[in-house]
Amino acid sequence: MSIFNEEQIKAMMSGRYICSECGSVMEFEDEWKDTLVCSHCGHSVDLDEYGCEGDNKYENVYPTREEVLNIADEDDRQKNK
């Protein structure tokens, strides 16, 4: 389990943050590098929330009980019986 979501990891490895609105490359707003801004459409997002915007925001930010405890969920356990 990582504190970073998949989109954050991909962006950190490539150095390219892609705008979720238009697909253009985003740039940091200022020298503190905590906010990304798209120079094409103006969309902005905090770096901590990059990759977990929209419907998946809650799911990406908070791990499930199973992920934290590193155990299979009940559906997996019943399949293995």
Question: Brief description of this entry?
Answer:
This protein has 81 residues and is of the alpha+beta class. Helix content is 31%, strand content 16%.
Provide an overview of this structure.
This protein is α+β, with helices and mostly antiparallel strands and 81 residues long. The protein has one domain. Helix content is 31%, strand content 16%. The model has no long low-confidence stretch (mean pLDDT 82).
Note the overall shape: elongated
User: Quaternary arrangement of the chains shown?
Assistant: single chain
Termini gap: 26 Å
Strand order of the largest sheet: 1-2-3-4
Number of beta strands: 4
| Beta-strand percent range | 15-25%
User: What portion of residues is helical?
Assistant: 25-40%
Gyration radius, in Å = 16 Å
What's the helix-strand series?
A: HEEEEHHH
SSE blueprint:
Elements: H1 6-14, E1 17-18, E2 25-28, E3 35-38, E4 44-46, H2 57-61, H3 65-69, H4 74-79
Antiparallel strand pairs: 1-2, 2-3, 3-4
Provide keyphrases for this structure.
81 residues; alpha+beta; four-stranded antiparallel sheet; 4 helices; 4 strands; elongated
